[in-house]
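I'm curious: can you give me some protein's one-letter sequence along with its backbone structure tokens because I've never seen that pairing?
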Amino acid sequence: MFKGSGVAIVTPFKNDQIDFEKLEELLEWHIEENTDAIIICGTTGEASTMSLEEQKQAIKFTVEKVNGRIPVVAGTGSNNTRTSVELSRYSEDVGADSLLIVTPFYNKTTQQGLIEHYTTIADAVNIPIIIYNVPGRTGLNILPGTLAELSKHPNIRGVKEASGDIAQVAEIARLCPEDFYMYSGNDDMIVPLLSLGGVGVISVVANILPRDTHDMVSYFLDGNIENSRELQLKMKPLIDALFIEVNPIPVREAMNILGMDVGVCRLPLIPMGKANREKLIEEMVAYGMNVGGQ
């Protein structure tokens, strides 16, 4: 488990294959820029378009290259419990520090089904699990009472909360133990979630602003609320631009604008529309980012 800014890292592609050379470059950059953890094969990493073998390769590669310098969190969620168990066991075997497991999507389930799904996975491994609640993408909201029940399992240690409902975050904080880690899953709600007892963020914007995202959380946890708040408000228009189209289309575009050369999204995601791209560039410039000749 970690405190601070964990980057939900973009998976770089080249000729529709994972670009491992570029991935290594990104990992080294994030470590230099004070990113507190790497989340590999999450939503922003487009795990949903990767084969199981590709996911395993990306997780193993990341663990080996990071080599214990910061925590590596492996995204191992699936709407098939058996697949999630397989990938979670594999990730533990190759040395991942913890797991990020999204709620089942499409087939969904009941709240009791969620308890059985996560308990089955947690019983199969011996490393911490972070539950990922993002109902806007999965169509399924994990309720605070369900999280409270799951938090009793020794391997279920936290939640990435991306419901966008601050009242729900407050209820999770009220019902779950104090040592249950809450991470913001929304870059525009980092400070509000920290104010309710959160310990960090699993971030999209950290792909382009790793140091500022780290600093925002670090300031807050160190008691410098004003500097943390200022960074949150300064970053807000750029964060909005990063979600003007479906994530990770804009953040991948932003990385390419900055010369990071991470390739294009896999279908069904497509390149960013021209008008939205111009808006993104406008906000990057306003933030003070060097967009070169764009």
